[in-house]
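Hello Y.,

Per our agreement to keep a running log of every chain we model this quarter, I'm adding this entry. I've kept the format consistent with earlier entries: sequence first, then predicted structure.
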Amino acid sequence: MQFRTQPMRIVTVVALLAIMNVFVFAAGAPSSSSSNSVLGKLITTSNRPVLVNGGEAITGSVIVSGAELRTPASGGATVVLSNLGTVSISPNSSITLTFDSKSVTANVTSGYATVATAEGVKGLVLGLPADAQPPTPAGGNTAKNWGIAGVAIGSAGFIWAIISWNRANNARDAANAAAAANATLAAQLAALRTCLAGQTTSPVKFCTSF
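Predicted structure for the entry above:
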């Protein structure tokens, strides 16, 4: 009886060692795979914070697959996925981003987003109508553009005013110069007439004073 129980104990120990080795290998596997997993890098407009899984994040933050991103109305964001592509998120948008080494998917809850992938990587945008278009720039940009146009128009008007003023001054100077020349010529002619009128006497006098 004692001879039979000893082999059973040996088999039990060997089985336990095998099970322990399996658990150790399985425990080590996630750390190895996580080191090789795909990660994204966040870039926000003017480094304005966006919400990632409910917390604020700025440029340089790491984005993992399954993250929920929400952008404010003041700016959008881009997620750069190494060797996979990029995901562009418009302002005032909300998406859930999932990705692996072969695919990138942006599930749009609200707003607008686009996916650009490298060759061989599948890119997909869900939640948008087939004819969806990117949102137009905010009204602030339109006002800014009109302001720039107004400044340009005002500057052009100011330049034309200067040109007209210079032309008016040139015309006035030319008129004054012509009037002065006419006055000088009239004085010279009057002096010549006076000189010639005095030639009745002898000897003859040369009229050079005018």
